[in-house]
């Protein structure tokens, strides 16, 4: 393996793992709220969000979807031939890298839109928006700041994956 190809593979893997780490804190932040911990969130915010209640199911679903998306990023670290069923016809096997990389790019674009919308409406996203910032508020803000890195890291990993595997047969 040439050093350029090796560096490319390492960069794709680094971006993938860094993206996974960047997306994880917000999903994990919500789980204690689902289990009944307040994490310092103001009472009026929890009441407005119906936590406990219907809002709890929303938080659980949102975290589950986010953790699933993070888990799907592992496909960007695996050679396409290892995840392609052998029974697929050759012309369909060649599509697997494009599907994996294309899905990653689409996901990065959706995440970038969600991050942008969250930044624009931060006062509605941030549970501590109208309260004094304490340690819990800074932990929450840190989780969301890290999440803002997820789209560019996923996009870079997906483009790198496509450059590495997209044009080759599986």
Q: What features would you describe in this structure?
A:
With 170 residues, the protein is an all-alpha fold. It has one domain. Helix content is 72%, strand content 0%. The protein has 9 helices and no strands. Helix 1 packs antiparallel against helix 8 and helix 6 packs antiparallel against helix 9. The radius of gyration is 19 Å and the shape is elongated. The two termini are 18 Å apart. The mean pLDDT is 88.
Order of helices and strands: HHHHHHHHH
Count of folded domains: 1
Form type: elongated
What's the assembly state of these chains?
A: single chain
- The total of beta strands comes to 0
Main sheet makeup: none
First-to-last CA distance: 18 Å
Approximate strand percentage: under 5%
Structural class: mainly alpha
Radius of gyration over C-alpha positions, nearest whole angstrom: 19 Å
Q: What are the segments in which pLDDT stays under 50 over at least 5 consecutive residues?
A: none
Helix content: over 70%
Number of helices: 9
Overall average residue pLDDT: 88
């Amino acid at each position: 393996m040439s050093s350029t190809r090796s560096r490319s593979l390492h960069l794709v893997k680094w971006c993938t793992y860094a993206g996974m780490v960047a997306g994880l804190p917000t999903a994990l932040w919500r789980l204690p709220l689902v289990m009944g911990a307040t994490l310092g969130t103001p009472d009026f915010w929890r009441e407005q969000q119906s936590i406990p209640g219907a809002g709890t199911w929303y938080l659980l679903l949102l975290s589950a979807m986010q953790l699933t998306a993070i888990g799907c990023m592992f496909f960007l670290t695996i050679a396409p031939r290892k995840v392609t069923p052998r029974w697929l016809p050759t012309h369909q096997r060649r599509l697997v890298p494009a599907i994996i990389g294309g899905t990653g790019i689409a996901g990065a674009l959706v995440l970038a839109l969600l991050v942008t919308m969250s930044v624009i409406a931060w006062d509605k996203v941030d549970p501590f928006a109208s309260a004094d910032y304490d340690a819990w508020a800074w932990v929450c803000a840190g989780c969301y700041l890290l999440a803002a890195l997820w789209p560019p890291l996923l996009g870079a990993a997906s483009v790198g994956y496509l450059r590495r595997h997209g044009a080759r047969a599986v």
